[in-house]
């Protein structure tokens, strides 16, 4: 029996092509809505004006400085959070007493939204980049820490006993058994943390007024430079996409063996 | 010499207690090849973990060359039943075999020699750069054996190492273990639930009862040292010995009821 062809006879393009078409459609709609008078262009300027504002911004040194500030706060905060999360995760995860001791504290601290710490951050660092860093670190830390805990818990008892039976030192057991097992989890943690860190960096700048893109958005809004505000929002969106793309590619590259293992096991 | 005296192990989890081993006493002389045979769940793995210092016994003691075991003793290697999980999937075959030697602080040139010799001995020359998961189950267990052999142990513990491989591979690996034992002058304690395997491999067979576990009986296997799958297994003496072991195990099961 031949299979029945369903759906439209029109051959649809690749998902990437479709995605691009969808995006183009959205841009067109945003262009048309204010032009047709369906929305007030004081709140939503047409795409072309946003694009023009974006082009203007790229000629503005203040924009580049702000972008730099945001990226520095993001990268530094993320780096600190990853370092601390990995270290704490390995130490606490591999010592059962510590894990039990901290379990309820972690369950209490982790759900606290970082933004609830804004007043504290202002108290400690004012409108300095330190405020942004603190919030970014707090939010990103948990993502990494929790993943590392999962990773440590995933260590195969047989592999671990093998290492013990060959009299591996404690350090060698961490280096050769625990770390390779936890590595995929670390990468997942870093990927999640990278996105969260950007959200928190922008939020902190926006709310506290610490230097960065978030602050520029607030300034643009206050000075009624609406197209500029949208242009800056677009920039933060692009940043988010780039960070995600970077993290995913990095993860895939570095964990090539892990993917292959999964592939083999599945067959 | 390996001495196990009055060994007892009770697992406790909360209020639940499992008496895995009740009272085990036996010895293994240096250079001997002893098979421990007992039904599944009778505590064979528990016993090996106590002997290898991975688990603290509840009572009694284990001595290796007169020294009480409290942690993995030097000069001992273990081959686990779960070979797939015992090898490190993130390392090549060579690295897997070499890593314990690095930990033992063996010099680089000597490490190379030992790894090459061990892989050659188990018939895996040429797979050095493969990853364990690219190999068949039988080959993976060969890697685990090579890793143990390269370590140059005086005592080798093997926990049902061939329970999960097919019959043909199993026969090959049994012959491999016999030939390694004869060549390397190593003491082997080989755990199995397979009566035929224990008689075919051992110079001596120690039979365990089912739980609560004690030593049911011991038997010297007076078969010729040169054994092969075809003739040894058809030897009337082999059949006689395996019947003796089988009877003891049946007896142990009845006694337990
Ligand atoms: N970690 C453990 N905690 C509790 N009970 C266990 C544990 N390991 C093994 N047992 C129990 O001890 C008994 C012996 O197990 P085991 O040594 O694995 O037997 P064998 O290797 O002969 O099949 C079984 O009843 C098993 O359920
Ligand atoms: Mg077992």
Automatic annotation (TrEMBL), chain B:
It holds the Pfam family ABC_tran. Keywords: ATP-binding, Nucleotide-binding, Transport. One of its GO terms (molecular function) is ATP binding. Residues 2-235 form the ABC transporter domain. CDD domains: ABC_NrtD_SsuB_transporters (cd03293). This is ABC transporter ATP-binding protein. It comes from Actinoplanes aureus.
């Amino acid at each position: 029996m031949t299979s029945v062809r369903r759906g439209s006879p029109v051959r649809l393009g690749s998902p990437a092509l479709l995605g691009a078409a969808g995006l183009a459609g959205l841009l067109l709609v945003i262009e048309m809505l204010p032009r047709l008078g369906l929305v007030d262009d004081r709140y939503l300027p047409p795409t072309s004006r946003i694009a023009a504002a974006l082009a203007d911004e790229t000629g503005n040194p203040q924009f580049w400085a702000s972008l730099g500030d945001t990226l520095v706060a993001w990268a530094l905060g993320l780096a600190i959070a990853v370092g601390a999360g990995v270290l704490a995760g390995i130490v606490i995860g591999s010592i059962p007493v510590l894990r039990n001791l901290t379990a309820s504290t972690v369950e209490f601290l982790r759900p606290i939204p970082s933004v609830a710490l804004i007043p504290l951050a202002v108290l400690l660092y004012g409108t300095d980049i330190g405020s942004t860093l603190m919030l970014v670190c707090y939010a990103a830390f948990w993502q990494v820490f929790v993943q590392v805990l999962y990773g440590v818990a995933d260590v195969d008892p047989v592999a671990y006993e093998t290492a013990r039976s060959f009299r591996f030192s404690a350090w060698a057991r961490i280096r050769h058994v625990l770390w390779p097992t936890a590595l995929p989890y670390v990468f997942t943690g870093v990927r999640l943390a990278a996105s969260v860190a950007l959200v928190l960096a922008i939020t902190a700048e926006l709310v506290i007024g610490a230097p960065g893109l978030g602050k520029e958005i607030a300034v643009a809004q206050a000075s009624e430079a609406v197209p500029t505000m949208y242009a800056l929002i677009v920039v933060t969106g692009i940043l988010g996409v780039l960070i995600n793309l970077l993290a995913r590619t990095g993860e895939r590259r570095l964990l090539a063996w892990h993917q292959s293992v999964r592939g083999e096991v599945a067959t | 010499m390996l001495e196990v005296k009055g060994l007892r192990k009770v697992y406790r989890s909360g209020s639940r207690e499992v008496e895995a081993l009740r009272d085990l006493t036996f010895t293994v002389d240096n250079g001997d090849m002893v098979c421990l045979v007992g039904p599944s769940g009778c505590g064979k793995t528990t016993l090996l973990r106590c002997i290898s210092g991975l688990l603290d016994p509840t009572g009694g003691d284990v001595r290796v060359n007169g020294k009480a075991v409290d942690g993995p003793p030097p000069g001992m290697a273990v081959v686990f039943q779960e070979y797939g999980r015992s090898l490190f999937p993130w390392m090549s075959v060579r690295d897997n075999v070499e890593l314990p030697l690095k930990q033992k602080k063996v010099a680089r040139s000597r490490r190379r020699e030992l790894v090459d010799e061990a892989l050659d001995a188990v018939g895996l020359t040429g797979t050095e750069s493969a990853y364990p998961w690219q190999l068949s189950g039988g080959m993976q267990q060969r890697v685990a054996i090579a890793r143990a052999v390269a370590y140059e142990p005086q005592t080798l513990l093997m926990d049902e190492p061939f329970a999960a491989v097919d019959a043909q591979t199993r026969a090959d690996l049994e012959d491999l273990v016999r030939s390694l034992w004869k060549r390397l002058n190593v003491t082997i304690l080989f755990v199995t639930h397979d009566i035929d395997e224990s008689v075919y491999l051992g110079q001596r067979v120690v039979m365990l009862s089912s739980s609560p576990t004690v030593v049911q009986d011991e038997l010297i296997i007076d078969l010729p040292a040169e054994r092969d799958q075809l003739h040894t297994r058809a030897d009337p003496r082999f059949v006689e010995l395996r019947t003796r072991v089988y009877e003891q195990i049946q007896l142990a099961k009845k006694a337990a009821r």
